[in-house]
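hey
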């Protein structure tokens, strides 16, 4: 069992206080957005024996187990994070596995450097993800019914938005959503900036359901993603609730602290709320233009006290243990690799005491017993 030393990424949208408060340390005054736990080459966790990716590369079967290596190859299939949004993240979607493989191969064949700002596919993997709230957590997820979006946009009273309202009322659902998103992202930048500015003033005046879009415009003035965000469902998670985000589902996180787990990939198609490259043709190929109510996940309890967040993919499995005083020990020994993350109390994983924000990597097959009081998230795979 390896205690992990993890990197905190200082992205501009990060909270200056949430991760320091979890870790019980003083804020630096700088944004601290994501704490990464895993073997991603961009910021692998470190152990006393070297970085986690070095340990896995040296003996994948020993660290990951035969089942995981046979199913996912000689790499840790997931990346676990603590995510602290102090400002809205970019509006985005992720490809499915076939799209990722095809897109990566095409960009490789075209000779586009992997670190080029216009590169879309950094790897050949999909990126399903799950976010579980540690505090009240605001986000946008999936398309609203077009008529609902039309009413929200029409209430702003901005003349230049009326064509989008008409499209949302006049077309079949998938065509309406596709046409409006396409029009927003391909509009003249100066005209769109003026439209967004008018919309922001109206949203600020109206407040209520419109208030989040005034906030978005404050962070991303003139960005067409402010209007595109009005096409999506707004979701507010309470602590312990989660959202699963599959391929093609547009989404954005607005504010809050959560535990996030995803397949080990960097593939992101941006829709707006960003100064970064937006690949409109590829985005339109990947996004699923269908409305649906976002399905808020609540954990399913088992007799062992493990509360599992059920998802339809195998690269990761997230669960948690909320251990009261005097709880019996729990055997977590598994043939697959695990990362255990404490978020409350001072539980013990084997002989390692974990303060909030601390984590350990448990190699496949290694004895692992959870004792003590507190809340622990368990990340592993289905293999």
């Amino acid at each position: 069992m390896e205690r992990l030393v993890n990197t905190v990424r200082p992205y501009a949208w990060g909270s200056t206080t949430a991760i320091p408060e979890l870790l019980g340390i003083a804020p630096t005054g700088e944004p601290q957005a994501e704490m990464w736990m895993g073997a991603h080459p961009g910021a692998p966790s470190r152990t006393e024996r070297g970085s986690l990716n070095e340990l896995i590369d040296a003996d994948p079967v020993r660290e990951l187990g035969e089942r995981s290596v046979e199913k996912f190859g000689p790499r840790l299939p997931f990346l676990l994070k603590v995510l602290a949004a102090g400002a809205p993240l970019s509006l985005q979607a992720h490809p499915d596995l076939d799209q990722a493989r095809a897109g990566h191969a095409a960009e490789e064949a075209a000779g586009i450097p992997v670190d080029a700002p216009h590169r879309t596919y950094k790897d050949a993997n999909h990126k399903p993800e799950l976010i579980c709230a540690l505090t009240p957590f605001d986000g946008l997820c999936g398309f609203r019914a077009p008529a609902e979006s039309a009413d929200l946009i029409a209430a702003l009273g901005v003349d230049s938005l009326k064509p989008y309202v008409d499209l949302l009322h006049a077309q079949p659902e998938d065509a309406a959503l596709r046409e409006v998103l396409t029009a927003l992202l391909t509009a003249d930048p100066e005209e769109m900036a003026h439209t967004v500015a008018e919309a922001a003033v109206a949203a600020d005046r109206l407040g209520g359901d419109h208030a989040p879009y005034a906030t978005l415009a404050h962070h991303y003035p003139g960005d067409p993603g402010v209007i595109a965000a009005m096409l999506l469902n707004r979701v507010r998670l309470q602590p312990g609730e989660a959202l699963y985000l599959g391929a093609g589902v547009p989404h954005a996180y607005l504010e809050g602290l959560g535990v996030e787990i995803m397949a080990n990939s960097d593939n992101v198609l941006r829709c707006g709320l960003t100064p970064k490259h937006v690949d409109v043709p590829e985005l339109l190929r990947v996004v699923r233009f269908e409305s649906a109510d976002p399905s808020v996940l609540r954990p399913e309890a088992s007799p062992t006290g493990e509360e599992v967040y059920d998802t339809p993919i195998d690269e990761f499995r997230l669960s948690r243990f909320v251990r009261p005083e005097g709880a019996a020990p729990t055997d977590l020994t598994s043939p697959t690799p695990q990362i255990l993350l404490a978020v409350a109390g001072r539980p013990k994983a084997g002989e390692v005491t974990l303060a909030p924000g601390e984590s350990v990597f448990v190699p496949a097959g290694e004895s692992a017993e959870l004792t003590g009081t507190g809340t622990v998230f368990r990340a592993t795979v289905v293999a």
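The longest strand covers residues 251-263. The CA atoms of residues 189 and 348 lie 55 Å apart.
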